[in-house]
Design goal:
Elements (H helix, E strand, L loop, with lengths): L5 H25 L2 E3 L2 H9 L3 E6 L3 E6 L7 E6 L5 H8 L2 E4 L5 H27 L15 E3 L1 H4 L10 H15 L2 H4 L8 E5 L6 H12 L3 E5 L10 H16 L2 E6 L17 H16 L6 E7 L7 H4 L6 E4 L5 H11 L11 H6 L6 H17 L7 H13 L10 H21 L3 E7 L10 E6 L8 H11 L1 H10 L7 H16 L35 H28 L1 H14 L1 E2 L1 H8 L15 H9 L1
Parallel strand pairs: 1-4, 2-5, 7-10, 7-11, 8-9, 9-10
Antiparallel strand pairs: 2-3, 3-4, 6-8, 12-13, 12-14
């Protein structure tokens, strides 16, 4: 049994004293003593109604005679001590008793002391930030400890990451039966690094390992080790491993490892000492503990390219497990997990919904199910159907629908032709991404209309011809505006930006330029998992002559895509005008109407029309 602390003992004594004082007052009240004036007391005394009197320094308590009833008491102030002579003359029994003021005096001394100590303790906790962050515990680890009964997560709660799951099942087997691996001289890796984009379930799968193995789980974040004071982070790393050794076998999980393990600088500046000391201590602890002790270190990051190489060498984090975005089968399995508590309509096909969500992570799919449920609740439905999921996807991708936004007639007409331009070019060029929906209902901040394309299959490579078609679809809206209204608008700004990015990557990174050869002129400056992030000015490692040639190739490639889009729309101008008017009337075209349009679209471009010479392109554009 745990021994009570000294502060708890004082609080117990204080509570007992208060209880005793309250009990004493309650007993006095139970006697039903009635306060009377002294004149009434004199009358009772003269009438012989007083049976017994108890005297104190300042008052008298008397028991009154009654006929057949329970005796009651009265109390009055003491007027004169010589009244005792009167009691003798009347033959009344009397006595004198000093009032017991022990509890009252004790409380009058103790209560202010306890109030002062309580106030002092409260202020001390506020100043120091509580026990966990006070000055005396600044070097203590902030890791949250979950016992095996608290985790309650197993591999049955994880889906879409089958390869990572199979890798980590070895960790579970090692924690349950380490002798199985030691029999042939093998050992488990000291550290396992989970690498993947945000929201793919790295933390979830780490908890599943602990839940399957039934061992304590230490969960912390890389940022919790870094403090303003030098040496605090290193102390917390030491304390974390000391706690883990006392609970072995166990799992230590460090989320966002890049906050702690960023590559160390080699400059002469000394402003990064705290982070480097913390990282050095972690490296020392990884070298110091034996994998046979039953401690497994798991860590997660979405920026592995900035980690210090010393962390990733063999003997430390010597196994890296990729937790990537799920494919269509993985997304289907994840949706099945998240819809267990959702009442679905009988016609809902989760595989079809998974096909509509390429690039979605597990967290995105969980949010999708929740949004679809909320859409169904708003329309007071009994179950969630496919239209609810479609509406939720559109809301996540394009933003909230704004039917009340007022758009003048001309702008609305421009938007309708713009979106139909995208759709007809996509249908004519027979891209893998089929058209799913066309709408001119505004969404989000600046979206006046949108055309949703759905991939028919998972793709990991794209040919040059497919990139050209993708650019032509992006420029189809602009080409439609120019064909119908003979002017250009700002509505194609985002389309131009995306088309230019594709062309730039094709020429400078994929070696698809006609005259530049198989050379890479620009290395990617983005995170391997976070996508395109501009970290600063780009360095140029080529001459001005080469830069001029890149500009020519870039302009030729984009203009070729624009020319292809224009050719398609000219060949299908009647169709464009007809269904743009239908779109203006109905505001939204669904899959059935889109299939009808696709069956009527003609493709005048039979093969890639990338020009052999930029002069030929200029000649085509002039016509």
């Amino acid at each position: 049994m745990e021994k009570p602390s000294r502060s708890s003992f004082f609080w117990y004594v204080f509570i007992i004293l208060i209880f005793a004082a309250i009990t004493r007052d309650y007993i006095n009240q139970d006697l039903k003593i009635r306060e009377i004036p002294y004149s009434e007391f004199e009358s009772l005394l003269a009438n012989g109604a007083i049976k017994e009197v108890v005297l104190s320094e300042k008052e008298m308590t008397a028991q009154v005679k009654t006929d057949g009833e329970k005796a009651h008491f009265v109390r009055t102030n003491r007027v004169d001590p010589i009244i005792a002579d009167k009691f003798k003359s009347y033959g009344i029994k009397y006595s004198m008793k000093n009032k017991n003021t022990f509890f009252t005096d004790l409380l009058s001394w103790m209560l202010p002391i306890f109030i002062m100590f309580a106030l002092w303790g409260f202020l001390a906790r506020k100043v120091s930030g509580g026990l966990q962050s006070g000055m005396m515990s600044v070097g203590k680890s902030k890791a949250k400890i979950f016992v095996e009964t608290d985790t309650k997560i197993t591999f049955s709660d994880v889906a879409g990451v089958d390869e990572a799951e199979s890798e980590l099942k070895e960790i579970v087997e090692f924690l349950k039966d380490p002798k199985k691996f030691e029999r042939l001289g093998g050992r488990m890796p000291k550290g396992v690094l989970l690498v993947g984009p945000p929201g793919t379930g790295k933390t979830l799968i780490a908890k599943a390992v602990a839940g399957e193995a039934g061992v304590p789980f230490f969960s912390t974040n890389g940022a919790e080790f870094v403090e303003m004071f030098v040496g605090v982070g290193a102390a917390r790393v030491r304390d974390l491993f000391l706690q883990a050794k006392s609970k072995a076998p166990c799992i230590i999980f460090i989320d966002e490892l890049d906050a702690l393990g960023k590559v160390r600088m080699v400059s002469g500046l000394q402003g990064n000492d705290e982070k480097e000391q913390t990282l050095n201590q972690l490296l020392a602890e990884l070298d110091g503990f034996d994998s046979r002790s039953g401690i497994v270190l798991l860590a997660a990051t979405n920026r592995p390219e900035i980690l210090d190489p010393a962390l990733l060498r063999s003997g430390r984090f010597d196994r890296q497990v990729l937790v990537d975005k799920p494919d269509i089968s993985g997304r289907t399995a994840i949706l099945k997990l998240h819809v267990k508590k959702t009442k679905l309509a009988s016609e809902v096909d989760l595989q079809k919904i998974a096909a509509l969500t390429p690039g979605f992570t597990g967290a995105d799919l969980a949010n999708l199910v929740n949004e679809a449920s909320l859409v169904a609740v708003r329309r007071n439905a009994e179950s969630v159907n496919e239209n609810d999921f479609t509406e939720a996807i559109e809301r996540m991708l394009a933003g909230l629908e704004k039917k009340n936004r007022l758009i003048n007639k001309f702008e609305r007409e421009v938007v309708a032709y713009h979106e139909m331009g995208h759709a007809i070019v996509a249908m004519a060029l027979s891209l893998q991404d089929s058209i799913h929906k066309i709408s001119i209902i505004p969404r989000g901040v600046g979206t006046l209309g949108y055309t949703i394309q759905r991939p028919t299959e998972e793709r990991f490579l794209m040919t040059k011809d497919e990139l050209e078609k993708k650019m032509a679809v992006l420029l189809g809206g602009r080409a439609s505006e120019k064909l119908i209204f003979h002017h250009l608008s700002t509505g194609a700004a985002d389309d131009l930006d995306k088309a230019t990015d594709i062309a730039w990557a094709a020429i400078t990174r994929y070696g698809m330029g006609q005259h530049l050869g198989d050379v890479v002129f620009e290395k990617p400056t983005h995170s391997l998992l976070l996508g395109d992030i501009d970290y600063g000015p780009k360095t140029r490692n080529y001459s001005d002559v080469t830069a001029h040639e890149i500009d020519r190739e870039l302009r030729a490639l984009v203009q070729s895509a624009a020319l292809n889009a224009t050719k398609v729309l000219v060949a299908n101008e009647l169709l464009l005008r007809k269904y743009a008017k239908v779109l203006l009337e109905k505001e939204t075209l669904n899959e059935g109407q889109i299939k009808e349009i696709a069956s009527l679209v003609r493709n005048p471009i039979k093969k890639s029309s990338y020009p052999t010479q930029s002069a030929n392109l200029e000649q085509n554009l002039s016509h």
